[in-house]
Structure formats: C-alpha cells, structure tokens
Amino acid sequence: MIPVKYSIAAVSKVIPTNGSNPVVIMVDDLNDYICKYGYHNKLVNEYLAFYFLSSWELPVIPAAIVTIDPEHIPASMISNRLQPRHFHSPTFGLQYMNEYLDASNLLLGLNKDYGELNKFANKYDLIKIALFDLWLANTDRNHNNYNLLINPTLGGYKFHPIDHTDIFDGGRLGQPLAQLTEFDSLLSSDLANIFALNKRKTSDYVNNLILKFPIFVRECGNHVDEIVSEIPPEWCDDKESLKTSIISSVIKNDTWIND
Description:
35% of the residues lie in helices and 15% in strands. By secondary structure, it is α+β, with helices and mostly antiparallel strands.
C-alpha cells in the first residue's frame, strides 16, 4: 500500500512543466517529495500507473499520498496555477532524489559507445516501457518527451519511467480509447534505437516480453480491487465504476490486448 504522509515544512521548490507545476516539500518521514495536485483523475492515473509498473517488474520511485497543509504554500509562490485551495485534498508524491538525472537527447552522444551503453543496467526495459505505454494508451511519452529519470546505482544506471497523468488516452477512461502506434511511443525514438542496438539481444528480449505480456496484464487485473480500494476518497467517489472501466478497457478486453 502507498503510505500516507503529511507536510511538515513550507514548499521549497516549484517545478515548472508544460502540464502541472509539481511542488517539492518535506514530509513527516523527513524526506522531500515531488507532489502533483489538482485534477483528481490525473492523480488517480499516477496512482494506478505506480502499481501497474510494479506488476510489470519495472523500477519505481517510492511514492506516497501526501497531505499538504495549505499554510505551507509560501505567499511568494502563489499564482494562477498554484493556489492554497489546490491542497484541500491529498496530492500524489514521488520521493525527490537529488542524484537522479533527466533522460535527454544528450544521451544520443553515446551512440555506439558500447562501454558507456553497457553501464545502463536495464536499457532493454525501454522496450517494455513502450509496451506498457501502448497497453495503457499513455499519450505523454514519445520521441519528443521521454519522461524517464536515470538512477545511478552501484549496479549501473537504471531508467525509471515517470509522469503518467495522461494514461488511458489522455485521461479518457470510461470512453473508447484510441490505440497508439509504435510511432507514438518510445519505440520510434532515437534513444531506444541507440540502447537496443544489439539485434540478437533485442530480438530475444522482445520474444520473452511478448510471452510475459498477458501475465503482466493478468497480474494487474488480479490486484485492481485492492489497488482501487486504497485510492483517497477525495479523488474518486465511485470506485466500483472505476474498477469496471479499468477491467473492461485494458484488462479483459481481448481486442485491445491483441491490437
């Protein structure tokens, strides 16, 4: 279960993005969290994706449901996009890791530098992340927007997927979802082509991934009841409908899965 945390200090930073403006704040475990707030359906998407990533055996950053005291919003930070009223309900937070780096096109300079490329411990997971995005119709990760962090571990660098507010075709769960193509995903990115350069290893990875795909989907489905039951009530007032929509859209939907 994702733990519940409470802010204990003022917001230290606002991170401007094209979408939300998440805030960095210290909570009662004395760690800083990057917290998203606002539209409840987008927070639900982040929450669901966190659990589904774990079921897909993809690395995740520690998450929490963070209640931020509106008085912890400094007056100097208040704007049209950041108001104390935005924090009358809980936020979704990922632990803030100073050592993590944003994946960017600077990595393209590693092309054919096998010594450096081999320092990435889960480089073939870029393919799994792409399939994860296709399965959940994540419209916000593609060749122009990686939404990946790089974790420098002792065992090598690891890619961590982040930012899943726009799964379910940009938040259209409960409506017919538009199927993405490989060109809408990381599969068409220069990044994936550079890191999945070894054709034999890529082929072996893909064949194994195809075999595991229905297992990953089934595992997510097995935990939908439990996952949805823990969603903060402020975010969702009809959990039964939410469960039904998830299952009918991406779990027990043979046409969607086959496509």
